[in-house]
Amino acid sequence: MKENVRVWDLFVRIFHWSLMVVVFVTLLTEDDLLDLHVFAGYGAGLLIMARIIWGLVGPKFARFSNFVYAPATVISYLKDLRNRDASRYLGHSPAGGAMVIALMILVLLIVVTGLASYAAEHSAGPLAAYLSGSPRLIRNVLSEIHQGLAGALWALIALHVGGVIYAGVFHHENLIRSMLTGLKRKL
Fold first, then answer.
1. What is the pLDDT of residues 177-187, one digit of tens each?
2. How far is Cα of residue 15 from the mean position of the Cα atoms in its chain?
3. Alpha carbons 18 and 7: distance in angstroms, whole number
4. What single-letter DSSP state applies at residue 183?
5. What is the CB-side half-sphere exposure of residue 52 using CA atoms within 13 A?
């Protein structure tokens, strides 16, 4: 059996699972429990901001420079994965890195549109001074964009989970356990 190496530091693991929780809270509450929805949305925004900072100053495998690849590299990796010829990466693969960035950008867009929608519809939150009293058209557009992005997030989450399962089976490793323990098999 090959030796394990620590890849995911404690911050990355706590970030990952905390973001999962707050995202699911926001996706499952929506307008039914608005205070909880808003609170979880703030949490998602704070987590993303902290992860951006950690992606610049954190340890090797947490840094964006370690897992952000050119689009051509991501596409090539996906083709190799489809052809069952993809290399195994100790950190995020090109596809995994692209998914991290896509999820972070999408969650950040959802937070921003949520703040805007909350301000326009409820005259509350940090954008209330700018959007309070907005015409119905603006409120509806903000709400529709926010909800549309949330729908896109469901799709991206499904793609993420499917990709983790596929890559884990393909490379014979339990990626979920790795995100819990921080450990992966050495290359």
1. 999 999 999 98
2. 10
3. 18
4. E
5. 12
